[in-house]
Amino acid sequence: MTRLGSGNTPPVRSSVRSAKLAALPVAYAGRQAAGVGKRLLGRSPQEIDRDIQLRTAQHIFEVLGELKGCVAKLGQLLAIYGLALPRDVAEPYTAALSQLQDSAPAMLPSMVHAVMAEQLGADWRSRFREFDARRAAAASIGQVHRAVWHDGRQVAVKLMYPGARASIESDLVQLRRISLLATVFLSGADVKGVTEAICDGLLAELDYAAEARHQRAFAAAYADDPEFCVPNVVAQHGDVLITEWLDGTPLTRIRASGSQAERNRVGMLTLRFVLSGWARNGLLYADPHPGNFRVLPDGRLGIVDFGACCPWPPAEFDEFAVDYCTAIAHGGPRDLELVARRHGFVDSSRVFDIDALFTSVLAASEPFRRSSYRITTPWLRTQVLRTTKLELSNVARQLTMPAEFTPFARSTLTLIGTLSQLETEGPYRDELVRWLPRLEEAIEAPRRIS
Fold it and tell me: Strand 233-237 relative to strand 240-244: parallel, antiparallel, unpaired?
């Protein structure tokens, strides 16, 4: 594996990466053993368990924050758990994870030229009028360059780091080994099934041919759309993807300096894009984080990076969504219990506090039960704290999720995070039922769940 950086750059040698990941379960076992000794010294089991859980969470964030590739992508998703930790503990790791995309060491021009020649052939320069060998942006497994295609179009050239595929495959072997640590947060979860679904999704992002197909499908579905702009795919060869270039204002700038009205508009457009994708081309856009959106000069929302897409929804999802909305809008705890058991969110034999679950779900669904709502980071923190609090009595710890819903969970968590950063206020319920009309029927017309 070629080493792309030195000093404080993320480790990319497989032996270093594997050792850091392998250290996680060893350290976890050591903390459990130490906990036995502490119990003998009189500390309460609850206090010791909480200490073990907090230290394990810190270690997970620290190690994932040092790695790149798809495990780093997973680390970005896990960063949401930082909201459940004490602020002074979580801050160093959530800050590191939020900077992962920009922290990758840039490839030297000589290496960029070598990658382009390997993927496009020795005459690759003949395809371009201009090609800037300096990195324009970092991606999780590669980087983006600005260029001018032979027909004069401004293009973005995304190329994968040499050796990235092998590093990621090695990471995922270790991820499967450490996945048991997920029970620190969710003791009732189908850890193996969900882990495999996560790994499958992350491996799929290595396939630039599939990404090109997804982007072409979205570009066709949103061609000449007055609200959205999906750049066309120009060419794809192996680990190089060439698309039309988008100039626009990143959402991070909108978040920092945009007016409330602008943040509301952009946030609702982000939600609309994710929801409308299902209806227009049957694909889920599973990575709606702020870095993948631009506000164009004409006001449209531009979207990039279609590696994390998949056919959606599965057959089981529509029925679950209708049952869930019916239980919340017209039912009670018992109705929600039936939905949870029927659709595989809790083991059929497990006893759990359904009243607590109903209260939690009711609070989390509040934005979709009002005519208008403002999603903020404090609101999101409250929901995360409720579902991840490190107590055995926390009902969320007894639940699981069908593995096939994993892409939806990723998309939803990332989307809500984006909306909360923008502090988006808007008619979430109306937007939801606009694209999923069956849910309006469930909300407005009660039916019995049996």
Answer: antiparallel
